[in-house]
Amino acid sequence: MAPTPNSEPKRNGWKGLVVWVVLALLLRWQVIEPRWIPSGSMLPTLQLQDRILVEKITPRLNRQRHKPIGLGQIVVFAVPPQLVEAGYDANAALIKRVVGRPGDTIEVRDGQLLRNDIPVPEDWMPAAMDYDQGPLNVPPGQYWVLGDNRNASLDSHVWGSLPDERVIGTAVWRYWPLNRFGPIRFSHQDPEVLPIAAAIGSYD
Questions:
Q1: What are the tens digits of pLDDT across the range 158-193?
Q2: CATH number given to 34-199
Q3: Least CB-packed of 75, 108, 114, 177 within 10 Å?
Q4: Could you say which of 7, 15, 39, 41 is catalytic?
Q5: Taking the CB of residue 41, how many other CB atoms lie within 10 A of it?
Q6: What is the three-class DSSP state of 54?
Q7: What is the reported pLDDT for 32?
């Protein structure tokens, strides 16, 4: 039985749609992934309900080349084993800033973060850190990660260093809200956000 005149264009249309769906899924799984911010642990840099894009290729390439993630990068990662053992949802993901790389010595003293005994300049922070810690050495293949809202963040100062293989990707772009559309790097002094960041609590 011969196909009807309109059947071939319809078949081609479905094929095209399937190709686009497959490409979209590959992009999401392998290249870039949208995420949203559910907590205040990264205030004032990332605010509640911000929508961001997470780039996933560079961390994999760095891992293959035995090259560490850059200091100051914001990483999204699978929940570390220490939290899974404590009952945290193993399917969740967290987001923090890399402040220490393999071999670094990290210390918090008098409200100041020190890396290799040198104070880390963080003038954008809403408040001084309210705990002391260390000095601690970051093990090979691991990172020390902290939330920008240092006094309200479940991060390395609570559960220890982050294994490199847990890193999913780096936060590179904020696409929502539109008034903050653009690349993600460091915090900006925002007089409306800083008091909130200093006061808000978070468990992520």
A1: 999 999 999 999 999 999 999 999 998 755 444 343
A2: 2.10.109.10
A3: 177
A4: 41
A5: 25
A6: strand
A7: 87
